[in-house]
Amino acid sequence: MMVKKYEFLKHTGDLKFRAYSSSVKGMFENCALAISSVLSRGKKIKSLIKKEISVSGNDYESLLYSFIDELIYLFDAEGFIVSKAELEIEDGKLKGIVYGDDSTNYKDLDAIKAPTYAEMYVKNKGKKWECQVVLDV
Fold it and tell me: How far is CA 76 from CA 6, 21, 67, 81, 92, in A?
């Protein structure tokens, strides 16, 4: 059975998605997949380059915001487009490796201006974690 990792939702003007997993770490990793899908317009990105990342936050929402902001920074400033992430989250700190490729190897990429706190949440729903993110595009 294929488990849904993320889904895009209707939103006026911006882009909204939810990501899911049985763990917080997995939910954040699935957010990286959603961001990759947005930037690549659904095309497959190769995992040829890896980068270490580290961000922190006061709660899961601020940590998620910082994480997505870091992925956007890597794309905008370093020309790195993420394909997937392997993360560890502990005490308000997220550390890990993101995999991806040089964005110049791909045509017709999209842009994300920033994550927003509008409608953002991170919830534990029993055996499942769920987050919702709205991206300013």
Answer: 23, 28, 14, 9, 25
